[in-house]
Amino acid sequence: MQNIIFDVGDVLLEYRWKDMLVQDYGMTAERAEQIGITMFDDPLWSGLDLGNPLEETICRYEEKYPEYAKEIRWFLTHGEYMHVNRPAVWEKVHELKKAGYGIYLLSNYSEDLFTKHTKGASFLNDIDGKVVSYQIHAIKPNPEIYLYLLDKYNLKADQCLFFDDRAQNVEGAEKLGIHAIRVESQEQLLGELEKLLCGKK
Q1: pTM for this entry
Q2: Which of 9, 12, 34 minimizes the C-alpha distance to 21?
């Protein structure tokens, strides 16, 4: 294996969207759950990952769900509260880079959230390249986004290992000949990365 490709959300960092709504905004857990389901299950959310404008998307959410308009606007304009860093994983990424692996990012993200969630992240100093969905208007598990990464950086699928938290994205990679592992916890991920480091020693 020569190259390691990482998803970002729930891999290099984790999300606290429900805690954000309850602890930072001040709503009940029940209402937070309702709003989360409403936002994430709507195609408008995937539209953000595809690069649709943030303000336009917020307005469309407000039109569709006036009962949640105030909360949705707050949520979508305060993305800096949504994530929790995983410094132990970032350190492993740095060690993998030093060991000689190529390091790449392949993630579904809106421009606004990607910028806020990766601000100051040390793993950005270790990557050899990245493809984020909003940049090319394609999202995983669409084959187009995987192939774009391989082509852009001249990578061979069978020389790459991809880490993602979603089963459909792992399957999407495997269909193209990319080795892939589903991330189910930070502890499991750290164990897999340690195996890769041992393989280079």
Answers
A1: 0.94
A2: 34
